[in-house]
Structures are given as C-alpha cells and as structure tokens.
Specification:
Blueprint (H helix, E strand, L loop, with lengths): L1 E4 L10 H9 L2 E4 L12 E4 L3 H9 L5 E5 L9 H7 L6 E3 L4 H9 L7 E4 L7 H10 L2 E5 L6 H8 L5 E7 L7 E5 L1 H4 L8 E7 L25 H9 L8 E5 L5 H9 L4 E6 L2 H13 L5 E5 L2 H4 L8 E4 L6 H10 L5 E6 L2 H11 L3 E8 L2 E5 L5 E5 L3 E7 L7
Parallel strand pairs: 1-4, 1-5, 2-3, 2-4, 6-7, 11-12, 11-14, 12-13, 14-15
Antiparallel strand pairs: 7-10, 8-9, 8-10, 15-19, 16-19, 17-18
C-alpha cells in the first residue's frame, strides 16, 4: 500500500514519483477532485465513507494507492490509514502542499511557522488569536466555518498584521489576495482556502508572572506569587482543558493559567465590578485572548458555562456549598483546587473533597523579608493558606 500526496490537484503540482505510482497501481482511492489525475484504465474508487473504503481495501489485492490532498504528512488521512492498517508496511510519498504554495506567494519560509487547522475541526477564537500574537508566521487551513472572513474579522483587533489568502489552489479558479485584515473582513471566500498570517510585532510572553508584573489595586486581594506557584503546580492542563476560576479577585490565577496555556479555554468569574475591570486591564496587558470574563454571582454564572475539566476556587462569596453541589451534579471527573484562609471555609471544603481521588491538603505559610530601617530586616509572616485538591469521582448509574 502507498499513501501519496496529490498536491493541489493540478497535474503541474504532481511529483514524478507520485505520477509513476499512479501508473503502476492496480487500485486507486482518492477524492473525486483528483479523478482527473488518474488514467481511465485504472480502477478508481472515491474516498468518501472511510469505513466502507477501509473494508474494501482489506478485501482487495494488488498494488493499492491512496491519494491524499496536499502533502501526505500534513493534516492528511495518513494517521487514520496507519491506525486501520497497523500491520501493513506502507510506502509514503510526499506532495506539494497548499502550505508551500501560500508561502511561495508570500515569499516566506515556513521553518518557524505555526500551523493551525479549522478544516473539519473546531478552532477557538482565543487559541487562534493567541497563536497569531506569539508567532511571526501562522498558516491557517480554512473551511466554511473557519474561513478567511472569520479570521480577518477577529484579527482586526491586533495591530501590524498582514494576511495572504489562497483560494482553490491548483485549480483554474485559483486566486491569491494580500492585504490587511480589515480589507477582507466583509468578503466571502472559497471553502478550499488557506491563509498565511504575518505578525510584524510578535508578543513574547514571560514564562512566570510575578506580582510586580501585574496592574494592581490595593483594594483588591491578589494571591501571593509564592502561593500561586503551588496552586498552579497542582494542575495538569492539555489543549482541550476548560478552566473555571471562581472568585477570581485580581485575576492573577486566571491570567497565569491563560498565559502558560494559550490553547485552553479560561472562564474567570468575579462578582465585584472593580475586580472585573482590573482583570480586564491585565488581560489586555498580557495580550491574552483565551480568558472569558464573567461578572456576577458564581452560583448562577456557572450554570451557563461549558463543563470544566479543572476548577480553582479562590473565593466563593458565601456560596461554596451551592457551587460544590452544582459541580458534584455534573458527574464528571474534574480536578478541583480550593484555597482557604478561614477555618470555616476549610472545614466546609474538606467535607466535600476528602473522598476525592488523589486527595491532598497542603498548607502554605509564606514569610517575606521586610526592611524596617537602613540596618534591620524583619521576616514578615503572611496568613497561612490551606490548599485542598482532588479529582471528583464519577457516580455509578444504574
């Protein structure tokens, strides 16, 4: 079996090695738009229903060729083919991808490019914009839902960005465009589009944010950076994580999580409007697009949020039981971390999480040096913080 990249679908973009494989294969599977590359004498089967196709391949004999669009190693069918035929020794042939074509048009290399796809998969606005902000070049594979128009509408808020758009590359209808996002935000494009987004003013985030990095308000409590480091160490995020920060206060935990994990979805919940405004200022300062700010009582707001994978509760506004009961009824495995300063909140939280998987409780006591005059320094103790964490178990259902 051979898996080969058919490029853009134009014969001019087909490599001699792939042409030779087409000529010598007995059975060729490909999308209908590649049928023009296959001689009439060859047996062609359209790649449509993958389960049916894989079943047919299992029943077939001779030299089998699967033609995939673009390059066989870039957002192609290859991983699925390998998964379904793990014992077959495959031959893989590369092709000229639309990524190479759009980079050629833009006169850019792609060795430092970040690649994202909205083609047949979900792409959040936050992840998209964070990636643009932090990289010189972003290549985006588009479709009807995540189109160049969608991208340009969201890019207007970022300064010094230019876009290169390729439509129907390799076909008689191919078209290239170049300009600012505002030039294309109101236009429509082919579903078969690709973009190169060039950021001429890349934002380089700090790896660890100290308290002094934040815009501060003396009336709004901030989790000390040393305590915050312990809290953050307890989480284990992945690109699909959804994080709730309940009682966000100054938003330092939300901002640090979003800054260190730019691909995840963060929901920051706070009922004091001054605190919400402060969080908003820091979100802008650190160029973060994956924080969703919510103003109001947490017990009500969380009912309309996507289910979390991870929760931090730094303050509950007297609603701790309501919040925890709601989370419990989600009946999902959720990492929950609760920071308590008062014994009353600690006792309530402990009763809720003591039977959780991987339960642990850590008390953090921070003492910082403080100069009292030019010659003497005292160690100034802060209130101890009790951190409870665990994973909520699934309930057995009949």
């Amino acid at each position: 079996m051979t898996v080969a990249g058919a490029g853009s679908g134009s014969e001019t973009h087909l490599t001699p090695e792939v042409k030779n494989e087409i000529e010598n294969s007995d059975l060729i599977f490909a999308a209908s738009r590649f049928k023009n590359l296959i001689p009439d004498c060859k047996k062609f089967i359209e790649l449509k229903n993958f389960n049916d196709v894989f079943k047919l391949i299992n029943e077939s004999h001779g030299r089998i060729l699967i033609l995939v669009s673009g390059d066989s190693g870039l957002y192609s069918l290859l991983p699925l083919v390998k998964k379904n035929f793990p014992h077959i020794n495959m031959k893989i042939l590369p092709g000229i991808s639309s990524l190479q074509l759009i980079c050629s048009y833009a006169c850019e290399t792609w060795n430092d490019a970040k690649i994202l796809s909205g083609h047949g998969r979900f792409l959040s606005v936050g992840r998209f914009l964070n990636t643009v902000e932090r990289n010189r070049i972003l290549i985006l594979f588009c479709d009807k839902n995540f189109s160049p128009q969608w991208a340009c509408q969201n890019l207007i808020s970022i300064d010094d960005v230019e876009v290169f758009i390729g439509e129907n590359l390799g076909s008689p209808d191919e078209k290239y465009s170049h300009g600012k996002p505002c030039d294309f935000a109101g236009k429509t494009f082919s579903e078969l589009s690709i973009m190169l987004i060039k950021n001429n003013n890349v934002y380089v985030p700090k790896k660890f944010l100290r308290d002094s990095d934040f815009i501060r308000d003396k009336n709004i409590v901030m989790t000390n950076e040393n305590v915050r480091a312990v809290i953050l160490s307890k989480f284990d995020f992945n690109n699909n994580s959804v994080f709730w920060d309940i009682g966000a206060g100054s938003g330092s935990v939300s901002v640090c999580v979003a800054n260190e994990n730019p691909d995840i979805e963060v929901h920051s919940i706070e009922h004091k409007i001054d605190a919400v405004n402060l969080i908003s200022q820091n979100v802008s300062k650190f160029h973060l697009h994956n924080i969703n700010l919510h103003h109001g009582r947490a017990s009500e707001i969380i009912k309309s949020l996507p289910n979390p994978t991870d929760i931090f509760i730094g303050g509950s506004g007297g609603e701790l039981k309501l919040i925890l009961d709601y989370v419990k009824n989600l009946n999902a495995k959720i990492k929950i971390i609760i920071a308590c300063v008062t014994l009353e909140n600690f006792c309530a939280a402990y009763e809720f999480v003591k039977d959780f998987q991987n339960f642990e409780c850590v008390q953090v006591s921070i003492t910082l040096s403080k100069n009292i005059n030019s010659k003497l320094t005292l160690m100034n103790a802060k209130n101890p913080v009790m951190i409870l964490c665990g994973i909520s178990p699934l309930r057995l259902t009949s």
